Give the backbone structure.
Amino acid sequence: MSLKSTNLEAITQPGEGPLRRHSHTYDLMRQCIHCGFCLPTCPTYAVLGVEMDSPRGRIYQMQAVAEGRMEVSPEFVDHMYCCLGCRACETACPSGVQFGKLIEAAREQIQLEVAHRPPVNGQAKRGETEEPLARGDEDYPLHTDLPRTPALETLTERLLRRFFFDIVLPSRLVTSLVFAGLKVYQRSGLQSLAHRTGLIDLANALPTPLQGQLKMPEELMPPASGDLLPRLLPEITPASGRRRYRVGFISGCISAGCGSNLKEYGHLLRDDPAYADRGQAFSAKVKDISEFLASIELNQDMGEVSRTVAYHDACHLVHGQKIKQQPRQLLQTIPGITMVNLKESDWCCGSAGIYNITNQEMASTLLERKMNNIGATGASVIATGNPGCMMQIALGARERGMEIDVVHPIQLLDEAYRAGGLYEIPVRDVGTKQRQQRSLLIGIGIGVLAGMLLVRRRRRRSIS
Ligand code: SF4
Ligand code: SF4
């Protein structure tokens, strides 16, 4: 790893960016006393055994960049993006280092640099430079011996990042359409056809920027249930019975990470004169649903839910928001539920936002460890407060042929209230609905095909 600043000055002005001397982040870094208490809790350090992939090693590198002793090199990018952002190190740290804020600042710094460098194409790895398109000729010799700036990002990474963060997640409509497309892919039978014919393996093997990386996201998709497009909730849903609280509900995009971030608006907007106070006031009101329900008196009209349940702690709930007991308390109030202990319940499952798509090998290794612990519980249900974890653990269960349901704790509470007859929303016959939608799609497909044949026949006739 290069420890001297090389061509960095040409890319950003010295002292620019969130990793810099005299920044708020720099003060946070200096809280680290290098004691190493965090090391045994770090999943990437446990797997790789490399100091630079431990919390302490990462902070050391960030500090070196902030002080201008090290450039934002491809190696630095690797170590920062190998981090899961699980924040287990924060829970373990006796010195109160807020690692979540540090890793976000480091990645923001990387993105500032990335914006100035082209990605490498094809199968090239981060840090490799592009081969010149031609070696030149006598008239136009190419100076291939000139030092080139190594790329900080592969084309695949850039495409995935732009797709998720610039296109899908900022728009509810686009997110809904993407998920609707995935549901059509499953329900129309296209998915099983792609698997039966080996088309998915072929697409995965093609020499594209996504070579070898298509299969995992495809397999992550849980069996799609519900309507093709989500139904819009009314602006106000009145309380049934006496109103006790007025609650704003944020459905979020994919991860418990939303709640964690909403609680940090005060910090994120601290330098904005118009929003600093509003950010603080907003964050003070944010509660995770399990946190809220555990703090109020629950309606006890619950029926029995006879299940053996193990609870997996989502990282951004347990380490980000320090919510550990509340979901367990909630589950224990449900009659019939037997709770069993899950070893390393607060150890990351490898989902970590889009980590299981961008870092598939590490994500699979962590999933293996998680599934071994789950298998040892004998539970028939795994409850967890983050849809990303739900998808990851459900994938692990499918791959291993394990008969377990993976649910959000609120789904079990809902089941208990339905069983207790508290509300009369009929349980949807998802199977029937799916069959109806599949028939509709097949009908549309046949209609389009018949139409095309008809038009072709007419054309032939008119020509003859
Ligand atoms: S436990 Fe905290 S202070 Fe100790 S090395 Fe880790 S981050 Fe630094
Ligand atoms: S956030 Fe998680 S993966 Fe990253 S350094 Fe901390 S414990 Fe390790």
